[in-house]
Amino acid sequence: MVPRLGQKAPDFTLPDADRKTRSLGEFTRQGTVVLAFFPFAFSGVCDKEMCAFRDGFGALQGAGAQLVGVSVDSSYSLKAFAQTYNLQFPLLSDFNKKVVKAYGVLQDPWVGLGYKGVAKRATFVVDRRGMLRHRWVTDLPSEEPPYGEVLKAAQKLAP
User: Fold this and answer.
1) CATH of domain 13-156
2) How far out from the chain centre does Cα 119 lie?
3) What percent of the chain has pLDDT over 70?
4) What gap in Å lies between CA 62 and CA 143, rounded to an integer?
């Protein structure tokens, strides 16, 4: 079930691309967090999405927000993905699919290809108290997030 706006966002602990353990609480202590769930590294639309977030990263930072990507890819894949596209924000591996389930964004099966359990494309904006303030989820892997809406949601929470 997708968490509701105004509700506490599900906390988590996941390894990043360098296999360092990271948690939502760690990020929210620093301010607003934009969680960007994506199906697969190196998969066309996901590449385009993460590069669009990379290119708009300064605007998010200007709003006092941090960007965190989450997928079910391994930390090793995410490291290569980050290096290939020069992604300077954390990418977290939800290889065991616990966080995608907690956020209600598990796609199973994945659109006609028979893959079992990948992340839907989704964005969540979480404030510094851990409350969910913006949510966008799609069942269409080809649909990109509304980047402008995500930025506006983060700007509303700027200190």
Assistant:
1) 3.40.30.10
2) 10
3) 95
4) 26
Which residue of the set 46, 50, 63, 119 is catalytic? 46
Compute the CA torsion angle 26, 149, 151, 111 (nearest 10 deg): 50
- Alpha-carbon distance of 127 to 123, in angstroms, equals 13
Q: Using H for helix, E for strand and C for coil, what is the string for 119-148?
A: ECEEEEEECCCCEEEEEEEECCCCCCCCHH
Please return the burial class of 101, using the count of CB atoms within 10 Å of its CB with bins 0-12, 13-18 and 19+.
middle
Alpha-carbon gap, residue 72 to 55, rounded angstroms: 23
CA distance 86 to 91: 12
d(CA 35, CA 146): 13
pLDDT, tens only, 32-78: 999 999 998 998 899 999 999 999 988 999 999 999 999 999 999 99
Task: Give pLDDT < 70 ranges for the chain.
Answer: 1, 109-115
Task: Assess whether 46 carries a catalytic annotation.
Answer: yes
Q: Which of these, 136, 150, 130, lies nearest to 23 by C-alpha position?
A: 130
Instruction: Classify residue 54 as left (phi > 0), alpha (psi -120 to 50) or beta.
Output: alpha
* Helix, strand, coil fractions of the chain, as percent rounded to 5: 30, 30, 40
